[in-house]
Design a protein that fits this description.
8-stranded parallel beta barrel, 3-stranded antiparallel sheet, 16 strands, binds zinc ion
Length: about 550
């Protein structure tokens, strides 16, 4: 007889949940922002020293641990920034100076770049050096041994001056592919010389996530020093590469706000931060600071003088905007149907777009956001829907013009009292000499209550002149109009229908210290289209102030 063996009862079969894999101790992550250094290297971006100080304050509010402020050895503006920032109290962040290892021909203590790094007087310095043989022998034209010597003595010297050192291993992944032994030797030299972090850089942005994971694991087996990741976006993998590196055990993630940076940009912290906190449950910022993300994103766009990317994940205007009728209907029942997170967690909000795709339910939802309650079978609602569809056929578009949409809605349901009435305008553009710029002048006649106001103004162009004349006429009745700024003006020529002249659509974005709003105008005449959008922009501001 066979001995009786005890067979354990099989555990009840259960479908494992995603992410259930046991996570051992997870070190605290370090968020290292390089908007002011790598981000400033983006095409079309230029920050003054004062701009940089303002951005640094915002980043500090957001709760990042490190702010890479610039490269003092390469940029005189950055020297100014480091001088000013020393006097600015920051609550969370440490400002870091960035620079390269010494030049091959210089003694380390005589190297101007190294001296500039010391002169920046930051507690921490990030030094970058070469890991790729191609760069050592071809770009620098020095021996592999010499490069190791440069890495070692540059770090050791700065360390001897009492600084903390982070080492950016430039082109590490490409370097490892070309010559793994040498790439690791460069890291070893940095660690031996005293680097406290080794940041693996995908400088050319061509590495794939699975390669990043594998190489992060290789480096972790070799070294006990904490690692960082610095990824560029040339293959549109920068965020993904940063995420897999963190999953593989890297503790420092470098990136920029909105992903701005050289060529195709850097890893976008506006995506990485919510990914870390909301998807990986790895706290990266302090208590509820993530809700400031959208504001910080908008601030950097504004300071960098770039166009906002409406479709940017998490923080873009359209990130939680619903247009299709089916989507709107479902989201009204339960937001989770078409929203992967609660938008407010990143400081964003849900938007319902009204377009000919959306039926009555979409419009009803929209109208409610204006504080107007209508029942679904109210004939005014059907009328408004018909008007909107008709206007959209004529070329109006309300997705970027919510100011005009609200005014239109209020008029349709009899809840609007106009703040002024146009009696007429005239715009003259005159060019007197071939080599002189033309002069634009506008006159406007408006009626406010019983008073008629007739004013003239000049401007940089006809629309600008019209805008000036209109405000000048109205400011004495509504002084708050002097806080309104025209932020953006866009014209699009709409394709002509059979037998009609082509029309233009003008979209204007206006703003004051609190808010921004868009308005629209459509006409065969560009001045008429501009007038409609300008007048709505002013009317909307006055409506805001009546609330
Ligand atoms: Zn970079």
């Amino acid at each position: 007889m066979k001995p009786k063996t005890h067979k354990p009862k099989p555990a009840a079969a259960r479908t494992p949940r995603l992410g259930e894999r046991a996570l051992q101790t997870r070190p605290t992550l370090e968020i290292y922002d390089t908007t002011l250094r790598d981000g400033a290297q983006a095409e079309d971006v230029s920050f003054s020293a004062e701009d940089k100080v303002m951005v640094a304050r915002k980043l500090d509010d957001l709760g990042v641990q490190y702010i890479e402020g610039g490269w003092p050895g390469a940029n005189p503006k950055d020297i100014e920034f480091f001088r000013i920032i020393k006097t600015v109290p920051l609550r969370h962040a440490t400002v870091v100076a960035f620079g390269s290892t010494r030049k091959a021909g210089n003694r380390v203590r005589k190297d101007p770049n190294i001296q500039a790094l010391l002169a920046a007087e930051t507690e921490t310095i990030t030094l970058f050096g070469k890991s790729w043989t191609l760069h050592v022998t071809e770009a620098l034209g020095i021996s592999l041994a010499k490069n190791l010597e440069i890495i070692g003595d540059s770090i050791a010297y700065l360390k001897s001056k009492g600084r903390r050192l982070f080492y950016d291993a430039e082109h590490f992944f490409d370097g490892y592919k070309a010559n793994p032994d040498y790439a690791l030797q460069t890291l070893r030299r940095a660690v031996e010389a005293g680097a406290e972090r080794v940041i693996l850089c995908d400088t050319n942005g061509g590495t794939m996530p699975w390669e990043i994971r594998e190489l992060c694991e290789v480096v972790q087996r070799e070294f006990s020093v904490p690692l960082g990741i610095h990824a560029h976006n040339d293959s549109e993998m920068a965020v993904a590469n940063s995420m897999v590196a963190i999953e593989a055990g890297v503790i420092q993630v470098q990136g920029t706000i909105n992903g701005i940076g050289e060529r195709c940009g850097n890893a976008n912290l506006c995506s990485i931060l919510p990914n870390l906190e909301l998807k990986m449950k790895r706290p990266a910022l302090g208590d509820r600071r993530l809700a400031r993300l959208r504001e910080v994103s908008g601030f950097v766009t504004e300071i960098a003088n770039l166009m906002p990317n409406k479709h940017q994940p998490y923080v873009g205007d359209a990130a939680f905007a619903h247009k299709g009728g089916v989507h709107i209907h479902a989201v009204q029942k339960n937001r989770a149907t078409y929203e992967h997170i609660i938008p407010e967690l990143v400081g964003n909000r849900q938007r319902m777009l009204v377009s000919d795709y959306a039926g009555k339910s979409g419009l009803l939802g929209k109208v409610e956001t204006y504080g107007i309650r209508l029942s679904k079978d109210n004939p005014q609602l059907q009328e408004l829907l018909t008007t909107l569809k008709d206007l959209e056929n004529q070329g109006y578009q309300f997705e970027g013009a919510e100011g005009s949409l609200e005014l239109l809605t209020r008029k349709a349901v009899g809840r609007h009292k106009p703040s002024f009435e146009l009696l007429g305008f005239r715009v003259i553009v005159e060019k007197r000499k071939a080599d002189e710029p033309p002069i634009s002048e506008a006159t406007v006649m408006v009626k406010v209550g019983g008073a008629v106001e007739h004013t003239a103004a000049v401007g940089a162009g006809p629309v600008n002149a019209l805008d000036h004349a209109l405000r000048k006429a109205l400011e004495k009745f509504y002084p708050q109009l002097n806080e309104v700024k025209l932020l953006d003006y866009k014209v699009r020529v709409l394709a002509a229908n059979h037998g009609t002249a082509s029309k233009v659509r003008v979209l204007i974005e206006s703003g004051d210290h609190k808010e921004k709003w868009g308005t629209v105008g459509v006409s065969e005449n560009i001045m008429e289209a501009s007038w409609q959008a300008l007048a709505d922009g002013i009317e909307f501001k006055l409506l805001q102030d009546k609330r």
